[in-house]
Amino acid sequence: MYFLLFLKSGDTEAWKPDAILADAGVVPGEEGSPQPSEPTPQGDPNCLVDLAFLIDGSSAIGKRRFHIQKQFLADMAQALNIGPTGPLMGVIQYGDSPALQFSLRTHASSQDVQRALEKMTPRGGLSNAGRAISFLTKSFFSKAQGNRSGAPNVAVVLVDGWPSDRVGDAAQLAREAGINIFFVTVEGPLKNERELVPEPDFAHKAACRPSSFYALPVASWAALGRSALQPLARRVCRPERLQCSRTCLNSADLGLVLDGSSSVGPANFRTLLRFAADLSRALRVAPSEARVGLVQYTYEPRLEFGLDAHRSRAALLRALAGVGYWSGGTSTGAALRFALERLFPRPRPGRRQILVLVTDGRSYDDVRPPALEARRRGVKVFAVGVTWAVPEELALIASPPAADHAFFVDEFEHLARCVPRILQAICDDFARRPGD
User: Fold this and answer.
1) What is the sign, positive or negative, of the torsion defined by CA atoms of 183, 187, 189, 190?
2) 4, 183, 260, 301 — which has fewest CB within 10 A?
3) 343, 307 in Cβ contact below 8 A?
């Protein structure tokens, strides 16, 4: 997940020769050559996030407000306790064009961040926050820049009044790339200035949902620290709420329920596992993002691994490859009930619960009671049938409308065709969810 903070300021950092850096929007300076003067603190392990602060350095900001922004960032670094096992922080400054001030890998302590902030000077020009968001999406959250797998990516955009360009489309692309976008807006436009704003209600459009969590309006620059510092620090360190990005696919817990009965056979069971792997490859698996658990069933269900067992996509795929075929009967109702109890014992705030059940025949037991229980709990169920599965039974298992959540193929080799259809249905369900 990603955090963005936009502030208008001057350039300081560089990673390449100066001519190349200028073209890339990176300012020559200290980037890539940090000089720690004291032992490096480890940071707060309860706040493992990667943060991008986008600061406003436009001509309209002025020295006083630019200094307030720098002080706000310094206080944030201190409040969050920057360190390699906790939050990491980088800064992009925007004016006419954006520039990297320093990346996530440059400074490993709050003190080093504060010293770097002191050197920053404003860039000038217009307040093009939209260009800065695009710049961040393309280049900031990469492994080369210090981004850590599994750490939420958060961007906090600080805006003086209103941006000079449009931010909605750029922010949507950032969210789809996995960045959680906060907007801190200070001294919004007066009534007679609103016609000058290129994108009315820009913060609500660009910030993640719910906007009451991701957007922080501040009445004046003098009130920035006392109004936004602690609320923002608390929200940044709540990974269970940072589900904005990953929109349709990565804000969910996915339970896979696979038929291991005798009629499936070892070869077809390997095809079932490839189907499960294909679904999993579409997810960004991490403790704060998508999690996947697996149940195999015959007469009885068996938990192969729970939602918390694998903390990365690579680990999950290895585990799927190692699942053994069981063989037995087909008690689909019992398997569905077991999956609800073991994978989804209780609702998790900010996280959707999805079950994908695959069977190749008619169930020995009644599937209706556990299917109704899944609906009562708000668990979305997809039912996939192969060869001898009964379409009417798939419709009973699947969440309504069955046309969107029940699928049938006549051969195991055709299961791969269902993967894009299921993923699209998951995204369609997400788009229809109640907004704020």
Assistant:
1) positive
2) 301
3) yes
